Amino acid sequence: MIFHPTPLAGAYVIELEERSDARGFFARTFCASEFEEHGLKPTVAQANVSYNHLAGTLRGMHYQVPPAAETKLVRCTRGAIHDVIIDLRPESPSYLQHFGVDLTEENRKALYVPEMFAHGYLTLTDGAEVIYQVGEFYTPGYERGIRYDDPRFAIEWPSEVKVISDKDANWAPFDEETAGEAHTTTAGSAATEAKS
Predict the structure, then answer these.
(1) Residue 148, C-beta contacts closer than 8 angstroms, at least 6 positions apart
(2) pTM here?
(3) What are the sequence ranges of the domains in the chain?
(4) Class of domain 43-166 (CATH, top level)
């Protein structure tokens, strides 16, 4: 794997290191020891998939607070998405900065998302499918969110948002005072699609 640092401390775009021959190619998509060598958390507590019918579908911006803060390794296996993360760690040099990257079935890139980063994406194609390896169990009481169009961050999404859940459309504006605190949510444990 080839690890490319992003402008946000601890977040990486990861490319495959392909071994090709007449049959096609072989490549490693995850290796705990390589993650540790780059200072990344290698734990995988859950693996999830989201399927999106239409281009213009927005999911985000989601995160979990301690003690259930989670890392994510995100990859688009069908179609294409524009993936965005926001650094919410007050001690970080890139605090409140955001970064976006296109993840597609053609480029096969993945995005490593550290703990206490908000994460979300906009689908660029119909039928986009996204795989997540997540470093902590989904814990509804520790789930938080930020509106995708919060003016505090002014994220420039590459196209119009056409499909969004009521939950994601109604996250409160970002509040630095409460961003790291746990809260109670009415979402049930089956609502993994709304957080990843």
Answers:
(1) 58, 60, 61, 120, 122, 155, 157, 161, 164, 168
(2) 0.89
(3) 43-166
(4) mainly beta
